[in-house]
Every structure is written in C-alpha cells, then in structure tokens.
Design brief:
Elements lengths: L12 H15 L10 E12 L18 E14 L4 E8 L4 H4 L1 H8 L7
Antiparallel strand pairs: 1-2, 2-3
Length: 117
C-alpha cells in the first residue's frame, strides 16, 4: 500500500507559515455566518463495456470482461463544512481549459443560502 502526503520543501519558512494559517482557520470556533468550506476534486476516467456482461445465476455471480473502452473523463467535486456537518458531491465533465474546470461547481455552492451550509 502506498500512502500519499504533501511533502514540504526543505527549510521553507513560507510553506510552514501558510500551513499554520490553514490549521488556525480549522481550529476556530464554528460561526454560522462565516462557514469554512473545504473543497476537493477527483478526476475520473469513464469506462464503457466492450462486451455484454453474463448475468448472474445461482451458481456464479455476474461476469464482466476485463476489456473496456475509454469513454471520456469527468471530475468529482466534494464540498464539506466539517463543523456543521454539511457535505455535497457533484460530478461533471472536465473542461478543456483548466480555468473553467472549477467554475460550475464553485458557482453552484456560492448560489446556496448560507443557512444550508
């Protein structure tokens, strides 16, 4: 098993100061008027079956061929406000320009009333 971590640059005080600021934000008391919203993105590959699966029977489970056809890509966006328990996941196509990729999920969250966060 591989564990992934953000490995900080060696002897970089600016990086450490930035991380401390993030941790201070998370340590603040909950304020419903100023929610702390976290966001993460996971790009995924969309797959299409190339052969019809064999249906399950009493003697064996469904059988799916290991071959597949690539059928595009998408992004899954996860929003969470840990102190209130709010979380929402949305999925959509990956925009060709990286600047547009975050536009629709951010706009959808900003359009929500703060009371729902």
């Amino acid at each position: 098993m591989i564990e992934y971590w953000v490995i900080p640059p060696e002897a970089n005080a600016e990086f450490v100061a930035s991380m401390e600021e993030v941790l201070e934000t998370y340590a603040k008391a909950y304020d419903p008027a100023r929610p702390v919203l976290c966001m993460d993105e996971q790009p995924v590959q969309l797959l299409k079956e190339t052969r019809v699966p064999i249906q399950a029977t009493k003697s064996h489970g469904q059988r799916v061929d290991y071959e597949y056809e690539r059928n595009g890509t998408a992004s899954i966006f996860m929003f969470a406000e840990p102190l209130s328990g709010f979380r929402q996941a949305t999925a959509g196509p990956i925009a060709r320009k990286s600047s547009g990729r975050w536009k629709w999920p951010i706009c959808s969250i900003l359009a929500m009333p703060i009371a729902t966060l």
